[in-house]
Design brief:
Serine Threonine Protein Phosphatase 5, Tetratricopeptide repeat, 14% strand, 581 residues, Rossmann fold, alpha/beta, 6-stranded mixed beta sheet
């Protein structure tokens, strides 16, 4: 288990601070993560990687000459926020555009895509390749739905080598796609991992058993079997990976492969070497040429006892790029020429702890309504605090167990931002907009992005002049519902937040159009939301991390839908009191 922390909620930030303090020759602290502390050639494509913290050396440990230019580092097992990714990209960009790469998880896709849109609007060229190497997470026919696990390394390194060689953004993207198509991974776990401050691991495996098809965020395996011998495990890993060769690979024609045997956190290197001994034998017996084998920790999951095997199938171009020297805090290959450090004086990319921006003008009615907005956000934070453990438990059944923690981080950041904006004299719309931005930035992940959309949509309808009408509230909620569905691509029946949000919005609008007071309309809508959230227990998930573990979640409601139901029910109680007074 993870034993050393101060405040669990501060663990990721304190970890990054310590990592930078220990590796100043490679990285500097910037908003949202780290960027190279060395000077990169002007006009070189900036390779920006990222994901949740808890996977060291991914992602910050791979920043340095020959590899990434920057890493957006989210909270534990949660994708970095849109704001974090945008800030890291701007710190790393040097005139050649930005190439993004990350593991193919819903929250990462949402936030990296949003950051890419913002950067393009600023005139910065961007392209993206999400890593999809985990063969057990989707069929070959749906390779685009697969997760990214330890194969991140091969795609990141190929893209970075292309950038180092002077390829332009389109060519770096082409190389990354080629590397992704030629990377396959498969993993197993013997125990789950425990987040800092948690009393129980995110999942458990019966004594003497092994979970097959693990994720790197504490997701349980997709199947389970008895633990084999080390040789038996090697045979299982190699057999599964050789069953699915990438297009253009023919082992009878002298195929070349880079094997990466990756420990997930608790297996000892000696154990990995025993397994690799048999992996090498099997590959050689199959007539495959082994190039630059990797055995160690490249993408971990805190203290998970597990191992994955990645096979990166080379062609002539990839083989040449693979020889590019790399020098990063956690990964080194070849000899990199001496690098010049950036001048840190007056660095515009350094962390900005300055005062919040000025608030737009408002009037007395809107500022008075802003007090209610603050009270609503306080109620949301209190509700999540009360139910944080239960939300985490629901999420751990087929997800990664961090929903409660993420919602708690987000709601408290929203509350801090709302209070600060109100104290500065802001109107209702600005107070809620600042809360939305704080939530999405600090929570990260899918829930952070979607709650940012919901609150921001309602904020736009409230505005900063006059007292908001009942119709404006319903309009804002409907806009939030539309935004979430467009942003996250989920529909009713996918077993997500949408299954509860759609009936909440529809019922609220119908009640208000029928003449009901806001408090009464909200109560009826909250009741409909609770029923809809409970009904998700019968659904098979079709979106998000739970998708690959679908059957495991049947009988358990979706945590995103449940958290929405809890929140709108608590807000109904608050509105009833507010309208009486």
């Amino acid at each position: 288990m993870t034993r050393l922390w101060n405040e669990p909620s501060a663990f990721a930030d304190e970890m990054i601070d310590g990592f930078v303090a220990a590796n100043g020759r490679y990285v500097r602290r910037v908003q949202g993560g780290v960027a190279r502390s060395t000077v990169s050639p002007a006009g070189q494509v900036a390779v920006v990687i990222g994901g949740g913290s808890g996977h060291y050396p991914a992602f910050g440990g791979l920043v340095g000459p020959g590899l990434a230019h920057g890493a957006a580092m989210g909270n534990l097992f949660a994708s970095p926020s849109t704001q974090q990714i945008q800030a890291v990209a701007k710190a790393a960009e040097g005139g050649g555009g930005v190439f993004f790469s990350y593991g193919n998880y819903a929250g990462d896709v949402l936030n990296f895509d949003a950051a890419q849109e913002r950067l393009r609007a600023e005139g910065i060229a961007c392209e993206t390749v999400a890593v999809t190497d985990d063969i057990f997470s989707a069929s070959p026919a749906e390779k685009h739905k697969r997760r990214g696990i330890a194969g991140d390394l091969t795609v990141f390194r190929a893209a970075a080598a292309a950038a180092e060689a002077g390829y332009d953004l389109a060519e770096v993207t082409r190389v990354a796609r080629l590397a992704n198509e030629r990377t396959r991974s498969f993993g197993v776990a013997f125990t789950g991992c425990t987040l800092p401050g948690a009393e129980q691991p995110l999942f458990s495996v019966p004594e003497g058993r092994m979970a097959i098809g693990l994720g790197i965020h504490g997701e349980p395996g997709i199947d389970e079997t008895d633990i084999p011998t080390a040789d038996g495990l090697a045979e299982l890993l190699v057999e599964k990976l050789l069953e699915e060769l990438p297009d253009g690979v023919d082992t009878a024609q002298g195929a070349r492969v880079v094997p990466v045997l990756n420990g997930l956190g608790s297996l000892k290197y000696e154990e990995l070497f025993v397994v690799y001994r048999r992996v090498a034998q099997l590959l050689e017996q199959a007539g495959i040429e082994i190039v630059d084998p990797h055995v160690g920790e490249y993408c971990t999951s805190f203290d998970m006892a597990g191992v994955s095997l990645t096979l990166f199938w080379l062609d002539d171009e990839l083989a040449g790029l693979w020889e590019t020297p790399v020098d990063t805090p956690a990964y080194r290959r070849g000899s990199v020429a001496p690098q010049s450090l950036r001048d840190a004086a007056g660095d515009p990319d350094a962390l900005d702890a300055g005062a919040a921006s000025e608030v737009p003008p408002t009037d007395d009615d809107s500022h008075a309504a802003a007090a209610t907005v603050v009270a609503v956000v306080e109620t949301i934070a209190e509700t999540i605090d009360t139910h944080v453990d239960e939300l985490g438990r629901l999420d751990s059944i087929a997800g990664d167990g961090d929903h409660g923690i993420g919602m708690q981080r987000g709601s408290h950041a929203a509350l801090d931002a709302a209070r600060a904006a109100y104290a500065a004299g802001a109107g209702a719309g600005t107070v809620l907009e600042r809360a939305a931005d704080g939530w999405s930035d600090k929570a990260g992940g899918t829930s952070g992005a979607l709650w940012g959309v919901i609150l921001s949509s309602v904020a736009g309808a409230l505005g900063d002049t006059g007292r908001p009408s009942r119709a404006a509230v319903a309009t804002g909620v409907a806009a939030g519902r539309a935004g979430v569905m467009a942003y996250g691509k989920a529909e009713v029946g996918d077993k997500t937040l949408v299954d509860a949000l759609v009936p909440f919005s529809a019922t609220l609008t119908a009640q208000i159009e029928g003449g009901a007071r806001l408090a009464d309309a909200w109560r009826v809508a909250a009741d409909a939301t609770t029923q809809a959230a409970l009904a998700t227990a019968d659904l098979l998930p079709r979106m998000g991390r739970a998708r690959t573990h679908g059957q495991n979640s049947v009988g358990t409601p979706d945590p995103g839908a449940v958290s929405l139901a809890l929140i709108v029910t608590a807000v109904a109680d608050l509105l009833a009191t507010t309208e009486r007074n």
